[in-house]
Design a protein that fits this description.
The protein has one domain. By secondary structure, it is an alpha+beta fold. The protein has a 3-stranded antiparallel sheet. 54% of the residues lie in helices and 14% in strands.
């Protein structure tokens, strides 16, 4: 079942799963708003599936070294 949460609540759930994560709330918000993590816009809120967000973050982290420039370009 999908776990749709607001950006902040999704981040809180990811942070609870991994308290030592290096992903900040601001970075998570930026990645969601850039479209790298899919979301559903509802009014002035974005809803994120927590499991999909975590999978996307893992996918971004497993990219080859040097591809961080690609991620930065996708964020801009």
């Amino acid at each position: 079942m999908t776990k749709l949460r607001t950006i902040n609540k999704a981040y809180d759930e990811i942070k609870a799963r991994d308290p030592d994560t290096a992903v900040s709330r601001r970075m998570f918000r930026d990645v969601v708003r850039s479209g790298l993590i899919p979301s559903i816009a509802r009014g002035n809120r974005s809803l994120v599936d927590v499991d999909v967000a975590e999978s996307c973050l893992l996918n971004m982290a497993s990219r080859k070294p040097g591809s961080i420039e690609t991620v930065k370009q996708e964020l801009n």
